[in-house]
Amino acid sequence: MTTPKIDNEPILIRDVQDGICLLTLNRPKFLNAMSTEMLTELQNAFYEIGDDVAIKVVILKGNGSIFCSGHDLKEMRSDPSFDTIHDLFLLCSRMMVTMNNLPQPIIGQAHGIATAAGCQLLVNCDLAFASEEARFATPGVTNGLFCSTPAVALTRNISHKHAMEMLLMGELFDSEDAVRFGLINKAIPFDQLESTVMKYAESIASRSSLTIAIGKKSFYPQLSMELEDAYAHASRIMAENMQERDAIEGIDAFLEKRQPVWQGRQKN
């Protein structure tokens, strides 16, 4: 059973302007809980966005009072069989991997609470910003379901000690802790959050989307490599990057003291 939509509104709103795609989780009466339908919508949206060379950056936010409360627990309890729950977590995990593989950077924008898989969703973004009032938790331990899948994103972004503190305590941490842990880049006054995130998005959108796609594709794989392998990987990527039209244009523009004219990603 999936919690019903309200007034037939889309549960995921997509708006694209000037190369910036704004994705909004739209289940505010259900605290933007990630139902199977929501996860499927996000997965499909990321597939389509990845293929759209006109989109240069994505902003991910939530409608209503919070960012995202995590999985839809009512849906989970409606069919708690192993196969159903396993499929749900595999679906969520595939979506998280798709985010990392997306050629465009994703900026998370949390104005309120981000808990459990909602915290995972935020920290899995390439950049993450939150209001000073926002709170963060992986509270599964308090209701008997350890946040093992959120732990994957946590341990790839923050220290193991901070991750275990969140996972074992299950309590809400404030935005100051989130910055200190490395969950988010910055905590920003509520009334400045949207404009600050937009400034970052506009700056990214002004760069070569081809160069950024190459950089992002290189960044995540090297994190799990041995040091020598990581440098070998990065050296090859940089040599390949140097052959691309935007690298040639950018370096020539710098040497000639002019603004570069990017071609960016092109349709295959």
Strand content: 5-15%
- How large, in whole angstroms, is the Cα Rg? 19 Å
Number of domains: 2
Average pLDDT confidence is 96
Q: Please name the fourth-level CATH homologous superfamily of the largest domain.
A: 2-enoyl-CoA Hydratase, Chain A, domain 1
Let me know the largest β-sheet: 6 strands, mixed
What is the number of E strands? 9
The CA-CA distance between the termini, in Å, is 40 Å
Discrete helix count:
11
| Unreliable stretches covering 5 or more consecutive residues | 1-5
Q: In which order are the strands of the major sheet placed?
A: 1-2-3-4-6-9
Q: Quick one: CATH class of the largest domain? A: Alpha Beta
List the helices and strands in order.
EEHEHHEEHEEHHEHEHHHH
Tell me the structural class: alpha/beta
CATH architecture of the largest domain: Alpha-Beta Complex
Q: What is CATH's topology name of the largest domain?
A: 2-enoyl-CoA Hydratase, Chain A, domain 1
Shape: globular
Estimate the helix proportion, in percent. Answer: 40-55%
